[in-house]
Amino acid sequence: MASATLTTASAPETLKPSFLGVLRGEWFKALHQRLTWIGAVLAYGPVPVYLLFLVATPSVKTALLGSYAGSYLNTVVQRELTLNRVFIGFFLMALTVSVIGMDYQQGTIRIVLSRGVGRVQLLAAKLVTILGLALIPLVSYLLLDFLLTYGVGTAAAGTSRVFNALPTSFWSDTWLYVGTILISMVATILMAAAATVIGRSMQFGMAVALLFFPADNIGNTFLALIAGFTHQQFWANISAYLLGPLLNSLPAVLVPLHTMTVPTKEGGVRTVQVAAETLGASPFVSYDATHYLVMILLYCLVFAGLAFGLTWRRDVLE
Q1: How far is it, in rounded angstroms, from Cα 124 to Cα 116?
Q2: Strand, coil or helix: what is 127?
Q3: Does the chain have fewer CB atoms within 10 Å around its N or its C terminus?
Q4: pLDDT score, position 82
Q5: Distance (Å, rounded) from C-alpha 132 to C-alpha 139?
Q6: Roughly how many angstroms between the first and final C-alpha of the chain, as a whole number?
Q7: Separation CA 28–CA 33 (nearest Å)
Q8: Is 277 helix (H, G, I), strand (E, B) or coil?
Q9: 34 and 134 in contact (C-beta within 8 Å)?
Q10: Is the pLDDT reported for residue 148 higher than 70?
Q11: How many whole angstroms separate alpha carbon 239 and alpha carbon 225?
Q12: pLDDT digits 0-9 by tens, 222-254
């Protein structure tokens, strides 16, 4: 009688999605959202409008062909970069809230997690996706800035030789300015991510993200009023610890002062030190670049800690 051979069937190994697999899925979802494409296009809109107003200004040709053409062009480029920073920030807020909040809003996060994806892994993949999607329009904006500025400057002056007047420090200063935009982008993404994770709602995340920086800038003004009424320097010092004013003034702190010779009312000339172009409220007290960078880093760490900490601690039950 043949003895039956007993075979032990091993339990199938549980397969878990890899981080790259999750990342590909997030890229696919983000690229198929209309908001991603519409927002990226609208975010660049103010720069062409600014250049149209610039070329329509009667004095622009005189400025481009004058003795201070290099300084004038440097200022034009920095104003374009300032507009890029502000409006790409709005785009990133909406994109971050959409990418992170959509799964909570539609309840699809339970399906994703049921397939073995970890909550922290999913959030990390979303943030990497958002950062990647942020870099693509930034590079595109920089190329468009160059092409449009070159075209507008050449058309207004009648010659492209005006760009020979750019200061020797132009490219190094411009790359530093771009670095401040990248820092602002990272801070904006992490702030919007923390707000969305806290509320687990697109409406809550969008409301907090859109109000955060205006509240910072308005609060900066109130601090000035309180300092004026109370004559206490303490209130003015607080302005150097608000994220919005810190990001607004970061280019003026990191980019070296630009030396420019300007005419005086008496008919002579004088040399002045011009800071990089900024937009928005600034701190009322002066600190060095180290203070700015350390404070912004602390804000980013707090935002990241809130986003990842709450994602790790809280389960998805509904």
Answers
A1: 15
A2: helix
A3: N
A4: 94
A5: 11
A6: 58
A7: 9
A8: coil
A9: no
A10: yes
A11: 12
A12: 998 898 888 888 898 999 999 999 999 999 999
3 state DSSP class of 273: strand
Q: What is the pLDDT of residue 211?
A: 94
Q: Using an 8 Å Cβ cutoff, are 303 and 190 in contact?
A: yes
Report strand pairing: 269-274 vs 258-263. Answer: antiparallel
Write the pLDDT tens digit of every residue in 255-267: 988 777 666 666 6
Neighbours of 153 (CB within 10 A): 23
| DSSP-based three-state secondary structure for 269 | strand
pTM, entire model: 0.89
Higher pLDDT, 269 or 25: 25
For 288, the token pair is 């060095």
Angstrom distances, CA of residue 282 to CA of 134, 156, 208, 209, 257: 25, 33, 21, 20, 17
* Nearest-angstrom CA–CA distance, 136 and 48: 19
Distance CA 102, CA 315 (A): 17
User: Hey, what amino acid is at 12?
Assistant: P
Phi, psi of 261 (to 5 degrees): -100, 125
- What number of helices (H) and strands (E) belong to the chain? 12, 2
Residues in the chain: 318
For residue 6, pLDDT over 50 is answered with: no
**Which residues share a beta bridge with 262?**
270
Tell me the average pLDDT across 85-100: 93
DSSP state letter for 261? E
Exposed, middle or buried, 237 (CB in 10 Å: 0-12/13-18/19+)? Answer: middle
User: So where are the chain's domains?
Assistant: 19-313
9 pLDDT higher than 70: no
Q: Using CA atoms, how far apart are residues 166 and 155, in angstroms rounded to an integer?
A: 17
87-126 burial code (b ≥16 CB/10 A, e <16) = bbbbbbbbbbbbbbbbbbbeeebeebbeeebbbebbbbbb
